[in-house]
Amino acid sequence: MKGLRTFKISILDRYIIRKFLGTFFFAILMIIVITVVFDISEKIDDFIEKKAPLQAIVFDYFLNFIPYFVSLFSALFIFISVIFFTSKMAAQTEIIAILSSGVSFRRFMYPYFIGACILALFSFVINDVIMPPANEKRIAFESKYFRNPVNYTEQNKHKQIEPGLYVYFQSFSNSAETAYKFSMERYDGDRMVSKLMSEKALWNKEKEKWTITDYYVRDIDSLGYETLSSGASIDTTINLHPSEFKRRDDKFIETLSIAQLGDYIDELKMQGADNIKFFVIEMNKRVAAPFSTFILTLIGVSLSTRKVRGGIGIHMAIGIAVSFLYILFMQFSSEFANKGNLPPVLAAWIPNIIFGIVGAFLYRLAPK
Fold first, then answer.
1. What H or E segment, with its residue span, contains residue 7?
2. Is the pTM of this model over 0.85?
3. 142 within 8 A of 61, measured Cβ to Cβ
4. How confident is the model over 9-58, as pLDDT tens digits?
5. Burial grade of 89 (CB within 10 A; 0-12, 13-18, 19 or more)
6. What is the DSSP string of 142-201?
7. Between helices 11-49 and 63-91, what is the axis angle to 10°?
8. Are 160 and 166 in contact (CB under 8 A)?
9. Domains of the chain: which residue ranges?
């Protein structure tokens, strides 16, 4: 408590925080401008061919492209920002002067972690509040103006759509919004109480219902007696929408907040889906990402406070290499979890754990 009472933000703290945040936002702004220019040159033909309105290009695509890009590369630029301005301070012997004046290395790191706390909160808000609705608009624009529509190719699909209710279809056509060789089974516990079988189920946009054609139904009572009925057409409302077959999971996941991901994972578990890991990993990565800000800041400061021959260039090269190693670890752990036996929670956190250990080691070696 004594340390907390005596701590106050000094001129040096404000100087480091200002340098940290200023370098980060300037670097992000510059790379966004460069990326937008290259993206325009790459997609301009698609925009012209599909006659995309200028207002939609600016407000539905590029304006919503910025949060996605900031989220994607914020960890990298946080690290590079720390390396850049700290190396510059070391090259100008500012850090030697600071430590020689009686400021401990631990105290010297306080403003860095204040800046990291601000950027971690910024990262969380971007990922969970701003990015999902922005991505929804951006992906809708992409689907309309330059992405090819999804072709659903999965065959013989079984799916639980609510407790005790299962559907099956042999194939599904996105263009016709029709499921072929469709059946629906309802259970009471382990006992089947009814089964509907039909040639096809067609989505009716006006009614927001499924129209089932050429069907027959088996109803089974508690004593095991069956009643058969049939008909040419019947409308039904079930927890299934054709949009589920038109979306890409890797794109759809970008439109969900952490709370929505949790609800969707519960729904997938209820349905007995086989792609749950993908969504669990993403939800945990959303939580783990802000914590990486503190770890990468620790590594960056520990690496760049020492004045070395080669100056900023050497520090920047090491910093960029470490940044890409972190991203590589994140990708590898996600793949191992998706396709192997690595727990999804561990897959999301293992890069932070490994690089946290590296950061603690580098902190011990840093000049005091």
1. none
2. no
3. yes
4. 888 889 999 999 999 999 888 888 888 888 888 888 888 888 888 888 88
5. buried
6. HHHHTSPPPPP---SEEEEEETTEEEEESEEETTTTEEEEEEEEEEETTEEEEEEEEEEE
7. 140
8. yes
9. 2-147+275-365, 157-239
